[in-house]
Amino acid sequence: MTKLSSAAREQKIQMGLKKRYRAETRFRVYGASAIVFGLMCVFLLFADIIGKGHKAFQSTYINLEVTYDQSVLNVNDPTDAEQMSLGDFHGAVKLGLRNRFTEVSGRKNKRELYSIVSNGAGYTLRDRLRDNPALLNNKVKFWLIADDDIDTYYKTLGEKNGPFKGRMTKNKEVWLQELIKSGDIEKRFNLNFFTKGDSREPELAGIRGAAMGSFYTLLITILLAFPLGVAAAVYLEEFALRNRWTDLIEVNINNLAAVPSIIFGLLGLAVFINFFHVPRSVPLVGGLVLTLMTLPTIIISSRAAIKSVPPSIREAAIGVGASPMQVVLHHVLPLAMPGMLTGSIIGMARALGETAPLLMIGMVAFIVDVPAGFTDPSTALPVQIFLWADSPERAFVEKTSAAIMVLLAFLIVMNTFAVVLRKRLERRWM
Question: How far apart are the C-alpha atoms of 244 and 249, rounded to whole Å?
Answer without folding.
Answer: 9
